[in-house]
Amino acid sequence: MTRRPIRLAVDIGGTFVDAMELDTRTNRVRFRKAATTPARPADGVLAAITALGTDLSEVELFIHGTTLGLNAVLERRGGRTGIITNEGFRDIFLIGRGNVPSDHMYDFQYQRPESLVQRRFTAGVRGRLDYRGRVVEELDPESVRAAARTLVVDQQVTSIAICFLHSFLDPSHEREAARLIHEEFPDVSLSLSTDIVREYREYERTSTTVLEAYIRPIFERYVDELEAGLAERGFDGRFLIMRSGGGSMTSAVAKTAPTHTVLSGPAGGIVGAAYIASELGRDNVLTFDIGGTSLDACVIERGNPVAAYEAQLEHFPLLIPTYDIRTIGAGGGSIAWLDHGLLKVGPQSAGADPGPVCYGRGGTKPTVTDAAVVLGYMDPDRFLAGTMGLRDAEARAAIQEQLAEPLGLTVENAAAGVFDVLLARTVGAVRQITVERGHDPRQFALLAFGGAGPLLAPLLAREMGIGEVIVPFAPSGFSAWGMLSADIVNDFSRTVMATLDDADLTELDQLFKAVEAEAVASLVAQGVPAGEAVLERQFELRYLGQEHSLMVTVGRELDRDAVRAAFDETHRGRYGHTMGNPLQILNLRVRGIGRTDRPELQTRPRGDGDPSQALLNHRDAYDFGQHAVVPFAVYDRAALEPGDTFDGPALVDEGTSTTVVPSGQRVTVDDHGYLLVTLEEAA
Known about the structure:
By secondary structure, the chain is α+β, with helices and mostly antiparallel strands. Helices cover 31% and strands 28% of the residues. The protein has 16 helices and 35 strands. Strands 13, 14, 15, 20, 23, 24, 31, 34 and 35 form a nine-stranded mixed β-sheet that branches. It has a six-stranded mixed β-sheet with strand order 3-2-1-4-11-12. A hairpin with a 3-residue loop joins β1 and β2. α1 (41-52) packs across α7, α10 (368-374) crosses α12 and α12 packs across α13. The protein is globular and about 80 Å long. One of its GO terms (cellular component) is cytosol. One of its GO terms (molecular function) is 5-oxoprolinase (ATP-hydrolyzing) activity. It holds the Pfam family Hydantoinase_A.
């Protein structure tokens, strides 16, 4: 069978859907955007593909990143969910940890957000395991059936989370309960904690299972609807969905594990960033992704993105592998507003509907995008390559009336103030994942992407002393491009809870092999030949007596001294010191990887170093280097050649994104056509 030449990636953002096509015969990439359709997300995906004009019968691989699961929780649009657990423990999820978020530490009137599950939707059943997984009381089948009838018949739940105490050691009770419920109610969606995560901590495991059950019904409908829409248009290739922790999975697996997709959009950008960092020879990179509704930043250290194994969705913990992403509600659509005379930006967003004022779709509140238009950074006639005109007069009027006049400022200074506030919030977010974790941001390159990333990245570099900003091609679609290089991945874990000195290495090796067999079986089911599966082993460790843990990669041969040395080195790098305490193994983890072919980075012939052939015109814009409106040189990104160099103030326009270079900074075009923004003296 002849291999089909086209690979297609689609990423849904808060404002736009990005579609990226790769022709593997020529390595040519094409990119288009369409408006996000919150009411029917699949429509926006299909609209972006239509705008791209891809022949879906030629597509071998379709890979997708979506925030549908995340939005379902934020907007409370998930399925009606119930919980079945052990008798006497039905309130585990409702009580939680009883902690107060740090940003509400001194708020004595703080109230936790409403739970996803009301108490009447929870039920306890007879049956119990002890802390070693031994049966204390056999599971009572009639108790399980009665609980299911109460939830399904009386309370009309459509999805049930099953989570028993200590079941991570022995899943048999959960599986038997699921079998009994399925016999009586075959149409009810069931989520078992041991199918999702085999780790200790009852509340976190219950929360993860509840979120899975809450998201699954609408996620399954969405994927089914999208699959049907693609099939109608001639697609019958492989359908993959991005994972929050990098890599991808088949759509069939995603429907049974939708929590792994909640941060899949940002993950695509980080996968692409790690690939770019490797190809450009940059070991340490900060990713800087600003879309329509949020700003996401992540550290790539020694070529690898920093990973975490617990995320937070609202205030609910989620035990899934994910990249350690710092997210704040500040994007192009973030609303600028006054709070008792103080200018604030976000977290509220104008989203895709109605969007910023300049979109002319009914938006009335000024946003970051409106400020960018007022400051002269965006050409109203060239937005989205000229397919969507912007209404600059309306944007100016909104900022004038709602911000400038109340603050007693000119409209340009008010718009500059919006960027100042956004920049201050951004510096705080980046410091959290660098300075507070022992990293010097000045030792990193800043990779800017997302529609608004290149707007702000040179300013952030200037503020934090970062020596280099890298702007890839089509930065507003970079997350979709990154998905094209994603491997097929699945993660598995087991709780150990033993000190390294006392653990039996032979037993640990056998446990690793058992978990690896699960990983290989999962990859084979997703089309990866068993012989091509790559397996990575890790220990999650901490000094005995500590709360927080660190990950250490281990080899095929387990060696206590090597594990200890690796942990001490990681701890010293993170916290600046080591301790003499024994090491405690919390969990062992296995990542199964099926490698995929990556898009090749093309090099282009070098020009003569003169960018004048790409100069479009000059336009007045606000220069943060001089804090004044001055003429900016405007360059066409597509006409720039490797070797071209020019100084700010300058704007580089590529239709779907604009790079803003203030005075004092210099742009050099590298051999791949990427923009490298540096300080003039450094350059």
